[in-house]
Amino acid sequence: MKKGHRHILQERQLTYKFIKEHSHEFSVESMCEVLEISSSAYYSWRQEKVSKRKIAFERDTKHVLKEYHLSKKRYGSYKITSSLKEKGIQTSRNRVARIMKKENIKSCICKSYKPQTTQSNHGKKVAPNILNRNFKTDAPAKAWVSDLTYIPTDQGWLYLTMILDLFDHSIVGWSMSEDMTAENTVLKAWKMAKINRKPEKGMIFHSDQGVQYIAENFQKDLRKNHVI
């Protein structure tokens, strides 16, 4: 008896779904009459489905708002989703993003702090400015310029290092890292640049001569490749 009752309920659910999917083609009342279904029962089913979605959305909204305020308003949709999943609360990043948009909240990165990517007060000897603002060359790999900048994300700061060839303004090397060590910034970008375009002997490498660029392991590799 229980199996038969469950089977009838499943058939009714399928019938309701069929009516919903074709409601733009035929009137609900006509389909209910043909399929011998009460139109009031169908509308009750629709209302129940809407109510369940609404309850689930309100529940997820509470979770999102709680995580947002626990993070002191720093978390974005990605971090909130990850944090909820760690606590066993399953949801999608798109759903979290919709909730944040509806609640008019977003990640607030503290503007009072900005990473200092250029640290020139390192007390070490710096090289003379050979380039002297001459940003044109007649051949590749004669003069490269490099800089390190920061990018704010939901997860914190990321540091982007780029090396550009002044001949055609191509980015010959780059790196993205979570710290500002020479190994993870300048050296990674430099290794990529050497693979993409071999430096000419006597090539000029121009930078702001911050602490990453005057690191001994980087300077040693420049000398090894006859770069000035």
TrEMBL record:
<dbReference type="InterPro" id="IPR048020">
    <property type="entry name" value="Transpos_IS3"/>
</dbReference>
<dbReference type="GO" id="GO:0003676">
    <property type="term" value="F:nucleic acid binding"/>
</dbReference>
<dbReference type="InterPro" id="IPR043502">
    <property type="entry name" value="DNA/RNA_pol_sf"/>
</dbReference>
<dbReference type="Pfam" id="PF13276">
    <property type="entry name" value="HTH_21"/>
</dbReference>
<dbReference type="InterPro" id="IPR001584">
    <property type="entry name" value="Integrase_cat-core"/>
</dbReference>
<dbReference type="GO" id="GO:0015074">
    <property type="term" value="P:DNA integration"/>
</dbReference>
<dbReference type="InterPro" id="IPR025948">
    <property type="entry name" value="HTH-like_dom"/>
</dbReference>
<dbReference type="InterPro" id="IPR036397">
    <property type="entry name" value="RNaseH_sf"/>
</dbReference>
<protein>
    <submittedName>
        <fullName>IS3 family transposase</fullName>
    </submittedName>
</protein>
<dbReference type="InterPro" id="IPR012337">
    <property type="entry name" value="RNaseH-like_sf"/>
</dbReference>
<dbReference type="InterPro" id="IPR050900">
    <property type="entry name" value="Transposase_IS3/IS150/IS904"/>
</dbReference>
<dbReference type="Pfam" id="PF00665">
    <property type="entry name" value="rve"/>
</dbReference>
<feature type="domain" description="Integrase catalytic">
    <location>
        <begin position="136"/>
        <end position="228"/>
    </location>
</feature>
